Amino acid sequence: MGDLFLSPKPIRSSFDPRAEIVLFHGDVNEFITQIPDSSVSLIVTSPPYNLGKEYENRVAIGEYLKAQAQVIAHLYRVLREDGSICWQVGNFVENGEVYPLDILYYPIFKELGLKLRNRIIWRFGHGLHASKRFSGRYETILWFTKSDRYVFNLNAVRVPAKYPGKRHYKGPKRGKPSGNPLGKNPSDVWEVVVRDWEEAFWDIPNVKANHPEKTIHPCQFPIELVERCVLALTNEGDWVFDPYMGVGSALVAAIMHNRRAMGCEVVAEYVEIARQRLVAYFNGTLRYRPMGKPVYQPTGGEKIAQIPREWKETPQARLLEGKDKYR
Ligand SMILES: C[S@@+](CC[C@H](N)C(=O)[O-])C[C@H]1O[C@@H](n2cnc3c(N)ncnc32)[C@H](O)[C@@H]1O
C-alpha cells in the first residue's frame, strides 16, 4: 500500500484513550467492552434494519430488538452524562406490512432513562417506488440525551432564514430585525440528499456527480447528515462513536470538525474503505458533498423531466399542462 493510504494521524485498531481515531474490525459487543464508562459524547449510528441486507441475517423482529436492547444498554454505559445518542432508522417490512423501527426502539431507550429531544425527519426525494402503499421518502433520527444537562450548540448549525429582512412590527423592538443574524434553527425536518444513490442515478442521469460519496456500501449515511449532529451535540476533542460504522461516514464527519472518532464494523472490506476515506480526507482527495449545498432541483428542461410523447393525453400530462385541475 503506497503513501497515499498512510494517515497523518495514527488510526488505532483497538480502543486507546489517547487516540484520535479508532477503527475496530469486529462485533460491536466485543468492541464496546474496551470503552470506559461515561467517555463518549455522541453515539451516532444507523444500525442494521434486519432487512436481510448482505451484511445481516434476518431474524424475527422480537429477536432483533432483544439483541439491539443489549447493545444499547452497553452504549448507555459508555455515554457521558452530557452526551447524546442519535439513532437513525427506517422501516422493517414483512409481508408488505410496515413496522416503523423508531417506534419499536423508543421504549428500549426510554427504559434506560434516556430523554428524547427530537424525532428528526430525514426527508429525501428518491427511493423505491411502492405499488401497494405510498412510496417511502423519509427516515427518522431519534435524538436522546442521557441527562437534562446536555451539549446543544444551536449557533453552530443555524441555516439561512427564508426572510432575514423580517422586522418586529410592534413592541419595544419595533422596526428592529426579528430574526437571528446567524440564521434560523434548522428545525426537525432535514432534507439531506438521497440515501439511495443508485436509484437517484437512474432517475436523474447526471446526479451521480452530485453524490460523490458513494462507495460499495448498500446504505451509507451522507456525511452531511452526521456533520449537523456532530456540530450541534459535541465540542472539539470529544469522542464520537458509530457502533455500526459501515464505511465510516460518521467518523469522517467527526474528524472534519476536530472531534475524536471511533467505530466498529464486522465486514473487513467496509473497515478498509473507512480507513481509506479518512486518509483521503486528510490528503484532501476525499470527494464529499459540502454541508448545506442545495438539493438538486430539475429545471423541467431536462429530457427526463418531460412527459413521454406516448403519454400526451394522460391525466398526468393534462394536469402538468394546466388542461385539468387536480381532483
Ligand atoms: C446501516 S449500515 C451503516 C452504514 C454507515 N452508516 C455508513 O455510512 O457506511 C450498518 C452496518 O452495521 C454493520 N454491522 C452489522 N452487525 C454488526 C455488529 N454486530 N457489529 C458491528 N457492525 C455490524 C453492517 O456490516 C453494516 O455495514
Could you characterize the architecture of this molecule?
The protein has 327 residues and is an alpha/beta fold. The protein has two domains: 3-296, Vaccinia Virus protein VP39 (Rossmann fold); 298-327, no CATH class. It has helices at 28-31, 61-78, 101-111, 197-203, 223-233, 249-256, 268-283, 315-320, and strands spanning 11-12, 21-25, 40-45, 79-89, 91-94, 97-100, 115-123, 138-145, 189-191, 239-242, 260-265. It has a nine-stranded mixed sheet with strand order 1-2-11-10-3-4-8-7-9, with helices on both faces. A two-stranded antiparallel ribbon has the order 5-6. Strand 10, helix 6 (249-256) and strand 11 form a beta-alpha-beta unit. The chain binds S-adenosylmethionine (SAM). S-adenosylmethionine (SAM) binds next to strand 11.
Number of strands: 11
* CATH top level class name of the largest domain: Alpha Beta
> What proportion of the residues is helical, as a percent range?
10-25%
Residue-averaged pLDDT, rounded?
87
- SSE class: alpha/beta
Major pleated sheet: 9 strands, mixed
Percent strand equals 15-25%
Q: What is Rg?
A: 22 Å
Domains (count): 2
Question: How would you sum up this structure in a few lines?
Answer:
This protein is α/β, with parallel strands linked by helices and 327 residues long. It has helices spanning 28-31, 61-78, 101-111, 197-203, 223-233, 249-256, 268-283, 315-320; strands at 11-12, 21-25, 40-45, 79-89, 91-94, 97-100, 115-123, 138-145, 189-191, 239-242, 260-265. It has two domains: 3-296, Rossmann fold (3-Layer(aba) Sandwich), CATH 3.40.50.150; 298-327, no CATH class.
